[in-house]
Amino acid sequence: MTELGSHESDVLGLFREHGSLSRTDVITLSGLSRSTINQRLAALTAAGLLQPLEGGESTGGRPSSRFAFRADRAVILCADIGATGFTAAACDLSGTPLAQTEVAIDVWEGPEPVLGAILEAFRSLRPDADVWAIAIGVPGPVEFAAHRVVNPPIMTGWDRFDIAGWFSPAYAAPVIVENDANARAVAEARHHRLDNVIALKLGTGIGAGLVFNGQIIRGDKGAAGDIGHTRAVIVESPARECRCGSFDCVEAYAGGWAIERELDQAGLTVHGVRDIVELVQRGDIDAVRRVRGAGRVIGDAIADLVSILNPRAIALSGQLAECDEVLMSGIRERVYQRATPLVTRDLVIARSDLGALAGVIGLALISSDAILRPASLDEILKRATAPV
Length: 388
Hints:
By secondary structure, this protein is of the alpha/beta class. α2 (23-30) packs across α3 and α9 crosses α10. The protein folds into 3 domains: 6-69, Orthogonal Bundle (Arc Repressor Mutant, subunit A); 73-184 and 358-374, Nucleotidyltransferase, domain 5, CATH 3.30.420; 192-355, ATPase, nucleotide binding domain (Nucleotidyltransferase, domain 5, 2-Layer Sandwich). It has helices spanning 6-18, 23-30, 34-46, 111-125, 163-167, 180-192, 251-254, 256-265, 273-281, 285-309, 325-338, 341-344, 358-371, 374-385; strands at 21-22, 50-53, 66-69, 75-81, 85-91, 97-104, 131-138, 142-143, 148-149, 175-179, 197-202, 206-212, 215-216, 313-317, 348-351. β5 (85-91) and β6 (97-104) form a beta hairpin. The longest helix is centred in the last third of the chain and has 25 residues, at 285-309. The strands form 4 sheets. A 5-stranded mixed beta sheet has the order 6-5-4-7-10, sandwiched between helices. It has a 5-stranded mixed beta sheet with strand order 13-12-11-14-15, sandwiched between helices. A 3-stranded antiparallel beta sheet has the order 1-3-2. It has 14 helices and 15 strands. This is Sugar kinase.
């Protein structure tokens, strides 16, 4: 039995992927009959998800109508939370940020202060928008179906906090909670039309998002890609304590907080990752040496992952990624030394060109996929045709 909304979802997916299409294009791409396509196009247009365009190719009679996806039909409010702040954005249904803001706040303050600041930011972005979803990216493992953070290494007080329930008094919209690096991986994959991508988020902490065969790899408990809290390949004596309570984690050698600690010990005044980046850009010898060393630690941490999963690209984002080649040279060095030649032959390791908005773009795309799937789309279509 065909799920309600499945044909509409499939047809809408063609427009989301290909852009504007004629009726004939949709018939050819979908394999559905003309009468079925006419019904689906009419339903999607009535719901405001498609808009007719002027013109179209001639088939001997009247010109075929062309249609395009109306990404501006609704807004998705997204917040990409990091250790020391968040980026909030109102995005359209294609993931394009329409308005955004950045707010400094420590994630260790706990969920209610942070989510309260996010709610305030949301209300300032697009107060009159038709909000179809809320999306929150967090720097920790996520139980995706339950919309909760699970056993996060650094997010004190967030474990299993009901994020979706917290927003329900303010918005009658579904709430999606996703790992921040996973969201960035989705943004990179869609933006560059790649099926196999590793996205490294490098800032105060370190995380990796994995998209392979076009799908997020979350793992059984949502912890896939948490390379920051795996054991570093080369460790020192005495052991380095990590913020998670363990010892000799990759983050304890290569996270922004660890580099900051080393530079402080070297007599430099550093207050956060931004200061580290500025020192590197000025050519400070201590900062350059430590950031390049951090790149080697990260490269060691992902080399086996590269050999096993064979990504097409590794995209770096986050404040620490602004160190550019100083950081990437160390990563490339270790990956190309330790990963197999076949998987590195065409591998691209580069800084993301999406900048600080990579996280919110990915969150919006994940949310758009969820709300435009058959069951959810069917509810939208019913509301569009319901009598007033």
